[in-house]
Amino acid sequence: MFSCILLSIVGIASATPLVDEIYPRRGEKCGYESCTQAEPGLLNVHIVPHTHDDVGWLKTVDQYYYGSRNNIQKAGVQYILDSVVQELWQDPKRRFIYVETAFFWKWWVRQGDDIRHKVHTLVRQGRLQFVGGAWSMNDEAASHYQSTIDQFTWGLRKLNETFGPCGMPRVGWQIDPFGHSREFASLLAAMGYDGLFLGRIDYQDKGARLSQKRMEMIWRGDDNLGNSSDLFTGVLFNTYSPPPGFCFDVLCDDEPIIDDPDSPMFNVDARIVKFLAYVTKQALYYRTNNVILTMGGDFTYQNADMWYKNLDKLIEYTNIKAAKDGLNIKLFYSTPDCYLKAVKDANPILPTKQDDFFPYASDPTAYWTGYFTSRPTTKYFERQGNAYLQMVKHLQVLGDLEEHNKFVLNELKSAMGVMQHHDAITGTEKQHVAHDYERLLNAAIEDSTLIARQAFNKIAQGDSTKLPLFAYERCKLNESSCPVAETSKQFVVTIYNPVAWDVKAPIRIPVKDGTYEVYAPNAAKITSQLVDIPQTIRNIPTRKSEATHEIVFIAKLHPMGVKSFFIKKVSPKVKRDTRKSERKNDYYVNINDYWKNIRYKTNIDIKNIDDTDVKDSYFPIRDITDIPVLPERYTKDNIPILVDYHDNIDKKVNIVKDIDIDLLKDKELPDYGVEQLEKIIKEVYFGKNEAEGRSLDKKWHYPTLNEDEMRMLSDEPKVVERFDEFYMENEYMKLRIDNRTGQITHMILPDRTTNLNIQIYYWTGCYGDNTNTSQRSSGAYIFRPQTKIPYDITYTSNGTVKGPVVTEIRAISDQNTLTTFRLYKGLNYFEHDFVIGPINVDDNVGKEFIVRYETNINNKNVFYTDSNGRQMLKRVLNKRADWNLTLEEPVAGNYYPVTNEITIEDDNTKIAVLTDRSVGGTSLNNGELEIMVHRRLLHDDAFGVGEALNETVNGKGLIVRGNHRIYNIDPSNRDEIINERKNVIENHLKPIVFVSNSDSTPYEIWINLNNCFKGVKPLPLGLHLLTLEPWNPNQVLIRIENYLEKSDKSTVELDFTDMFNNLNVKSIKEATLSANKWLDDAEKWIWNRENDFADSFNEAYNSDDSVDGDDKKLRNDDGIKNNDDLRDDGLKIKLRAKQIRTFIADYEYIPPVV
Ligand SMILES: [Zn+2]
User: Fold this and answer.
1) Ligand 1 centroid vs 99 CA: distance in angstroms?
2) 279 CA to middle of ligand 1, Å?
3) CA distances to 78, 239, 422, 1076 from 170, in Å
4) CA 53 to centroid of ligand 1, rounded, Å
5) What's the pTM value of the predicted model, to 2 decimals?
């Protein structure tokens, strides 16, 4: 059985264990073999000691680990692990499970040899078992499947490296997340887990399941994948708490078991009676003669002695009593794995489930649907973190970079793993914890860009040993801020496309007013447009930017490619003010400034003036390639060292000096000595005084052309006048606009017209003292609006922008909102860019802002939301697939998580809204899509956080900027449906933009660099390169996903020999989705089902072939519908609809021919 470990992993781990610490010795057993055997004729009571350690919630990750700030919550994870290991060591019967690898790893690396040896022994003997085992216990609503897979891969790899097969988790353990997604079940099945345990499901669902003994079921994760996505799923009886009265923790007040018969407090008999009453009741609701008792809770076992001392007694005395009284009951220490194995051995016939467990309600007024949107800026940042993580993984491989980079790559993997935790991405943590998550992620992103910078430089110069020419800086594009672009006279925009096909992406770079030219790598000047930044955005208090405009262009990007664009500012600062007299003054002032500032002349100026076609009259021609080649100096490890240029600088400087002096000799020169000039030139030229160089930039002006002349020379009108208009249009659609309000009224396509009205509204939040359900407040978890109809807001038009790249219309409202609708040339969607906040709470009422897309689509109460960004699930207003719903909260109870996409459709038209982060969404009225985008609340909802969700910056409410892409799709057109899926992936993995000052690196240098790099060849339609990650030296982890729905032509072939440009894949071996087990070694358990699955849940639900009825659409082949030959042929593989296949590939790197 031990062949199932990826042996190649062991040996490269940082904390490499001795092999004999990993493999069981004679007499040792782990996994299912280590379980205490359940007995068929008895009620088997599985006592499962556990702790639930949130990776941040009321305290930060580190505060929890170290037990700091115990005034907030008495919790210190290090003490838990210390204490548990000691207690386990004392008695081989005792068991414990651990879940969150983020904490375990933090603890493990701090242990000495003695403790490590003990832990290895405990793991080898099955006394300490890992369940779940991902970096954190991820949320299932807001988390994206890519990030879920990543954080499982990361956590499980640590366990695999350290403990081998005995450390491999076998069951999922999602005991606290607030609702459960279908896609997560599908992913766990693909990772090779044997089962999943849940703590929280809707109270009505739970009631129905208890009464019908449906607490345990077979859950089908994905209809396209069929039985390969089936997973045993059990709902725990008492969330994850012990039976009432049996919490033996330092945090609890329950009575210990007092077994001294001479003591007046002797309570053994009474305690056992109470305990037996509980377990026999619990047993009534389950189908086998096994019950699982979760003996623990949040941060329990800091003093494990208390637990084990009492549990030992409970087990011993109950078993004695059972034997004496013939009670047919047996208590023993167990684990979720062992409970699952016992249930399997009992071979029950189980019910099925085919939808998901959203939304979660814990009582009639507590719908946990607010958290789908809570802390929208954190949710956005997390999405960016994922894009960066994918990028650096890709570039580390594609750029063939140094091994030691994995340190920063791992830092980002850890940070993203933490972000998936069910109190991180969910926004259900205290404010100081939210700040700490941001700190962690930001630091990790920044550190990891080291990889991107190395790769970009290596690609650009064709040589990793050359000193970088560019700084590749991150910009805060979400607040239209990019200091480096704002302060550079010319700059390079470097863009990475993280998807494996060609993408056309709108790029917006914040700049100061001016005229700009954008050059593509082929030296072509490409169409660009300068668009002013609305005042609302310029006023964002956190924004540290002087940008007044954005230079906008459409970048055509290659698969996993890097592309650079060169942007030059070619005119003096242009004033929008058209008063001629003033401008004339400007002109002369500029000339004067010019001569005043000519002392700072560098070759860069010459270059810029070259571009204005006047060089000959002013300057001698100079070969720009004369610029000194920077000396290459390296340490023996090829790490660039700082170089002093003095030794070879003089000659070149003299050339510059000569030019300038020639140039200046006929002019009226200010009083500058040659030496002084030379010094300044040298400094600016070589960027030694970058700060000063930049500040000088601001003063540069050119005497050559005025604004009008510039415009005449320019190919395209760069300065756009505002005007009102009635239609926006591009090649794909026409949008009719109401002039008065600046609102869209119709979306017109060649073959159909859809009424469309996009409005922002707000709900007002209920508030009360939470003492009973009617006093429930809207809060971080809970959405509970006061009304059934939201408040609307009044818009006024805020201008229109039109140009060759983009047309925009804008509207503002009295409620601090700005909406911008954008239609780009050549793109088949339009964008809704919105700025909301600060939300006004002067009336002491919390508010939740929503966007409604109101159409004439007849969707008949049906809408679709995605499950973690991968599959779409049908939702029906006021209905659940699994039980008859009673709904006291008709708004909140119809909200569902939207990770990437929400749609409505009728026979002719489908409207899809793609979001830039996770949100909550619904469709409350026919033809409508509703998305919650911002929340500001003034009361806690009493689920533990103890703070109102009132995010502020400098005392004012947080401002949120977001972006939706809206598609109008023909639902019967297969190509459009496939394209929709592609667009969702593109929207999730948007190109990542870096900007570099290029004042010292002129265009002529740049154009000779490699500015267009293609990482892979375009994948066949239907395939997505989900993961490309460095694994071991010369080994890469590759995941390929087929995103097509099941149909006749949905199987797609891929040839690894024809996939990469610079990697030669030599061999592949397939692993489970989490890459901790070879696929050949994974064995799927087969269960007895009491009913079959519908062919398609979405088709069956709410149709005549109801999922609940007897006449459902059955299928016999269990998922594999097409009869294509699915066998692989060496490096040529085939992927079925929706399949993700995971490979460890051996490869060699082939350097590009320069
Ligand atoms: Zn939790």
Assistant:
1) 11
2) 25
3) 25, 20, 21, 11
4) 7
5) 0.86
